[in-house]
Amino acid sequence: MGEHTVSSFDEELGEIDRLIRDMGDLSGAMTRASTNALLNSDTALAQRVISDDTIMDAKQRDLDERAITLIAKRQPMAQDLRSVVGAIRMAADLERIGDLAKNIAKRVSAVGQSATPRTLAHSIDAMAGLVLHQVNAVVEHYVKRDAEALIRLRDEDEKIDIQYTSVFRELLTYMMEDPRNITSCTHLLFCAKNLERIGDHVTNIAENAYYVVTGEQLPVQRPKLDETQMTVDADA
Amino acid sequence: MNMLTDAAVEEALDASQKPRPLKMRGENVRVFYGEKQALFDVNLDVLENQVTALIGPSGCGKSTFLRCLNRMNDTIDICRIEGRITLDEQDIYDPRIDVVELRARVGMVFQKPNPFPKSIYENIAYGPRIHGLASKKAEFDEIVESSLQKAGLFNEVKDRLHEPGTGLSGGQQQRLCIARAIAVSPEVILMDEPCSALDPIATAKVEELIDELRENYTIVIVTHSMQQAARVSQRTAMFHLGNLVEEGPTDKMFTNPDDKRTQDYITGRFG
């Protein structure tokens, strides 16, 4: 896409894009750090995630302000309009990812010094890896304006859902085996749920990014799996 | 509850998808000013009771095309037109067509308000009089009032109908010109940048008026304001260097146009 006749218009759009990238990087880092902090009972790291969330909020406010000023000043059209509106929506999802990472980090002090046994933590670690990959990839594909990759990425959220179901089952088994596991497993369960919801926000971002890039809406919903309900029913 | 029944939803969908009747059509329209070709094979349909906006950078041919629709280009000696333009499937360049009658059916509003140097009343009554649409004073009174009503001007001028039209504000003058165009009961109204000389409030009033007029008239508007085209029209046609680049529903043209030139123009990348 060529440059605008008014070059400051390009600069303003560039600034908004830069903030999306920043927020994307930050949300990835927060997701990784919060899970690590929980698994290793690292309160210092958890504290850092909590303070990073303030930075995330500030960036979102900055982006919103710039986007609204740009709309008022430039009346953007076509792909410019899509990218500004898309940025506002993507920033809201990225900010929510920050909140969810913060929620995970806040559990660290609740769990206390009793570090989670590695055996319990293994599958949740794998889930965090999946989610982290999605968070990093979605902003990368957006920056490259790669519509095909965004569709694939949206479909991959299913893997997270499957992983969540398996984490749920696993933790349930540990709790049944030994009631002393219940406290830490419950915290891990919340952590897993938050990771799963981060995945949902990534899906939203992918859908918005796809719209910004192509001007088309993706089909309404891919099939959604949640087998945790069935597991409980079966055991009841 | 305000749940729509399936039948109602389907009916609403049908209404929105039903093709509207064709009012005017340009087929392979080519226009030359002397040696210089200003329009190249333009094919464009104007649908009934819709506002069609013509956009494009200066010199792209949009006003030239507009002026072909009621043969205003006939007044330019060196202007030559090829191709076919129809109104209700009738060729308007057919030699048997009475141009004066054509211009009564296809009225025009110009960029600058140009009221006659007569009273407000006479500005409106003039057209119906020369076209013989009325003879008694009561009939003229009726036409003047209803035209001013439709143009949303009556309440502002009802106490001074016999004062000069040129004494009104710019926005009122433009609505007076629209009332004047309506007075001869046209079917199509052509507007050539009708708001470019007006302030934002007067512009808003004219835009509101355009939206109301759509119910009874077919409107074609040339505008340099992208936002105005997006606000008032249902269909938009984009011209560039004498070619029709792209034409389609306004919503799509301003959010996701197909042609790169349209994209560049509406986003401010050239022009």
Automatic annotation (TrEMBL), chain A:
Q: Where in the cell is it found?
A: Cytoplasm
SUPFAM superfamilies in the cross-refs? PhoU-like
Q: Which GO terms describe its cellular component?
A: cytoplasm
Give the record's GO biological process terms.
Answer: intracellular phosphate ion homeostasis; negative regulation of phosphate metabolic process; phosphate ion transport
All copies of domain PhoU, residue ranges: 20-108, 125-208
Keyword vocabulary terms for this entry: Cytoplasm, Phosphate transport, Transport
Highest taxon of the source? Answer: Bacteria
UniProt keyword Transport, yes or no: yes
What is known about what this protein does? Answer: Plays a role in the regulation of phosphate uptake.
**Record-given protein name:** Phosphate-specific transport system accessory protein PhoU
Q: Please tell me the species this chain comes from.
A: Nitratireductor aquibiodomus RA22
Q: What is the lineage of its organism?
A: Bacteria, Pseudomonadati, Pseudomonadota, Alphaproteobacteria, Hyphomicrobiales
TrEMBL record, chain B:
Q: Does NAD appear among the keywords?
A: no
**Molecular function terms, GO-annotated:** ATP binding
Q: Where is the signal peptide?
A: none
- SMART domains linked to this entry: AAA (SM00382)
Which Pfam families does this one have? Answer: ABC_tran
Q: Which InterPro entries match?
A: AAA+_ATPase, ABC_transporter-like_ATP-bd, ABC_transporter-like_CS, P-loop_NTPase, PstB-like
Q: Which UniProt keywords apply?
A: ATP-binding, Nucleotide-binding, Phosphate transport, Transport
Residue ranges of domain ABC transporter in the record: 24-266
Please state which protein family the record places this protein in.
Belongs to the ABC transporter superfamily.
The protein, known as: Phosphate ABC transporter ATP-binding protein PstB
**What is the protein's species of origin?**
Nitratireductor rhodophyticola
What gene name does this entry carry?
A: pstB
